[in-house]
């Protein structure tokens, strides 16, 4: 079941900050931080699960399995990347039903051609807007729970310009998308124009080093965004920490002095409950 709290937050016009999660440890850490929503990043999930680029290689089964595991673990609502819906209209219907059954609260689909590419990398091509409209209509009709949210993303800005991206944003909102995501605006002025032009809850994608300026939350609110996702914040920090820890071990022959702590990670993973279970059911020698 979708979490009703997320739809209620959008209806109440509460600004949503959603960190990216990409594996089970990042899910457990983020879930305890008090965020109203978690975002399953395609880039990070594909990288951590398959060790390859987010370039259309991951399948529906790869992604629904991973995202579903995250959603079952988290108490926090989860929005998950679903690429292009993994095919045609029947695939989109199957994807929505599968993500919803997996316990995910929202699905993000984009209007790229197959194979898709990460939204802040070059070479992306988009399908006709009318084809994406049909996908959104199918997705809206397929969902069984009214609390299940549909995020419609357009990648048209990079290849076709801002005007076309805004036109598509209008169309996708009218087709039934709950949230409109215009990917990769290239300046704060473009972000402001998107917010002035589209009368739907809007998503800002804050990617460190990406094509879009990373703005403070208060500025995003003032522009008119409803939600900001930070898909890369977790895996970039994790990669940096791992690189530093491994370098320390290589160079000194010892692990780093500061870390998350073994006791703390045992608690995060649920070992105290395991130990209590074992104590209760232990057989006398």
UniProtKB/TrEMBL annotation:
Superkingdom, taxonomy of origin: Bacteria
Pfam families cross-referenced by the UniProt entry: PEP_mutase
Entry annotated with the keyword Lyase: yes
Entries under InterPro entries matching the protein: ICL/PEPM, Pyrv/PenolPyrv_kinase-like_dom, Pyrv_kinase-like_dom_sf
Keywords: Lyase
Entry's Gene Ontology molecular function annotations: lyase activity
This protein's name: Isocitrate lyase/PEP mutase family protein
Record organism: Sabulicella glaciei
């Amino acid at each position: 079941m979708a979490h009703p709290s997320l739809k209620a937050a959008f209806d109440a016009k509460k600004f949503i900050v959603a960190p990216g999660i990409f594996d089970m440890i990042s899910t457990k850490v983020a879930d305890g931080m008090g965020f109203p929503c978690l975002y399953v990043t395609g880039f990070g999930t594909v990288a951590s699960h398959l060790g390859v680029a987010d370039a259309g290689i991951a399948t529906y089964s790869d992604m629904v399995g991973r995202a579903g595991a995250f959603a079952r673990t988290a108490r926090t609502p989860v929005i998950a990347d679903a690429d292009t819906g993994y095919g045609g209209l029947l695939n989109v219907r199957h994807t929505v039903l599968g993500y919803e059954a997996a316990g995910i609260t929202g699905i993000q689909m984009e209007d790229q051609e197959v194979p898709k590419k990460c939204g802040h990398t070059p070479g992306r091509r988009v399908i006709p807007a009318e084809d994406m409209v049909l996908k959104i209509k199918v997705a809206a009709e397929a969902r069984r729970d009214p609390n299940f949210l549909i995020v419609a993303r357009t990648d048209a800005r990079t290849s076709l310009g801002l005007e076309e991206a805004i036109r598509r944003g209008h169309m996708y909102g009218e087709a039934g998308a709950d949230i409109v995501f215009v990917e990769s605006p290239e300046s704060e002025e473009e972000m402001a124009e998107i917010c002035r032009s589209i009368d739907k809850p809007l998503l800002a994608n804050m990617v460190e080093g990406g094509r879009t300026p990373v703005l403070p939350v208060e500025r995003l609110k003032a522009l008119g965004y409803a939600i900001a996702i930070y898909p890369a914040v977790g895996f970039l920090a994790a990669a940096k920490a791992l690189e530093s820890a491994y370098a320390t071990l290589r160079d000194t022959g010892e692990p780093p002095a500061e870390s998350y702590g073994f006791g703390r990670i045992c608690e995060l993973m649920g070992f105290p409950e395991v130990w209590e279970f074992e104590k209760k059911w232990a057989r006398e020698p």
